[in-house]
Amino acid sequence: MPHAPFTSSKELLAKGKGKESLKYFLEEKPKRRLIKDTTIGDRLRASIADLTELLEYM
């Protein structure tokens, strides 16, 4: 499928185009994975806790 310039959502729906991507966006869009939900996020939280303890100690 060749790319075409976007004009408006009304025009896309009137022509019947874009239904697949609209359906994906509305129904099947996967949840974004945030850094805090990864092992790196766990390590960052642990580092923050350690640094906070050091600050309180001083």
Automatic annotation (TrEMBL):
<keyword id="KW-0464">Manganese</keyword>
<dbReference type="InterPro" id="IPR009164">
    <property type="entry name" value="FBPtase_class3"/>
</dbReference>
<dbReference type="GO" id="GO:0042132">
    <property type="term" value="F:fructose 1,6-bisphosphate 1-phosphatase activity"/>
</dbReference>
<dbReference type="GO" id="GO:0006094">
    <property type="term" value="P:gluconeogenesis"/>
</dbReference>
<protein>
    <submittedName>
        <fullName>Uncharacterized protein</fullName>
    </submittedName>
</protein>
<dbReference type="Pfam" id="PF06874">
    <property type="entry name" value="FBPase_2"/>
</dbReference>
<keyword id="KW-0378">Hydrolase</keyword>
